[in-house]
Specification:
Blueprint lengths: L1 E3 L2 E3 L6 E3 L20 H10 L4 E4 L4 H9 L4 E4 L12 E4 L2 H5 L6 H13 L4 E4 L6 H9 L1 H12 L7 E9 L2 H18 L4 E7 L5 E2 L2 E10 L7 H4 L9 E3 L4
Parallel strand pairs: 4-5, 6-7
Antiparallel strand pairs: 1-2, 2-3, 8-11, 8-12, 9-11, 10-11
Length: 248
């Protein structure tokens, strides 16, 4: 389940559930606690301990520049937003187990690649995880994790074994957006039944921005398939769909 603005959203059917204000049994006011710290929670904790911290909610060059020019400053934010130009004395990867053991086909690999990239730029890397696993740490340090990723890519039919295209769209009304994406999926399958399509699923890295929900379709395509996406989507408004083929 994904939490946003006092609502829960199912990752599979995308149904929204409102969090109850009172316990259905005793009618007392409910309080919800989440076991994992997000970026904002870590940022607030650092401020309470008296540390100077910056919070990167979105890509802002001025925040990156300030961090690079000043000493004894902590920068907190999603790994999706961290700039490749960043250099620091230490790098803390929180909730590592959440990403490494994710059932998401792409999340694990993406964060492993980010971790490997920063390991070449920052002298001290700390993995904060609920699970202590020396075997995983050894794979990361020796680079064996790359071979494991290639095996998983072959198993799940990902590049370089398949070509992947992401179709992304957004609306303020989640059910209407889901209906739109289902119609697009149906049209693609009608014209190209051999294409495997995953979704619609919540978009990465952000499924909701400024009251708009975002969903994705992931298309797995054989390299030798004559596939014309523009022709397939000719009856769909261009401004409603964003195409991404470079993410993987």
């Amino acid at each position: 389940m994904i939490f946003s603005e006092n609502n829960l959203f199912c990752l599979y059917c995308l149904k929204k559930f409102e969090l109850p204000q009172n316990c259905p049994q005793c009618q007392k006011e409910t309080h919800f606690f989440f076991s994992k710290f997000g970026a904002e929670g870590i940022y607030q904790y650092l401020l309470k301990t008296g540390r100077k911290a910056l919070f990167l909610k979105e890509e802002k060059r001025e925040i990156i520049n300030y961090f690079l020019k000043n000493n004894e400053v902590d920068l907190v934010g999603s790994l999706f937003l961290l700039n490749p130009e960043l250099t620091a004395e230490a790098f803390f990867f929180f909730n590592f187990s959440q990403f490494y053991f994710s059932s998401d086909l792409f999340l694990k690999e993406r964060f492993i690649r980010i971790l490997e990239f920063f390991s070449r730029r920052i002298p001290k890397i700390f993995i904060v995880s609920e699970i202590i696993n020396p075997e995983i740490e050894h794979k990361i340090k020796t680079g064996e994790i790359i071979n494991e990723i290639l095996k998983e890519r072959e198993l799940f039919k990902l590049p370089p074994y398949k070509r992947l295209i992401i179709l992304k769209s957004g609306l303020t009304h989640l059910q209407k957006l889901q209906q739109r994406m289902e119609e697009i999926k149906k049209e693609i399958k009608r014209k190209n039944p051999q294409i495997e399509i995953i979704g619609p699923i919540f978009a990465r890295p952000f499924f909701k921005q400024k009251q708009r929900f975002f969903l994705e379709l992931i298309l797995k395509i054989d390299e030798d398939l004559d596939f014309n996406l523009k022709k397939i989507l000719e009856n769909i408004k261009v401004d409603e769909i964003e195409v991404d083929s470079d993410r993987f």
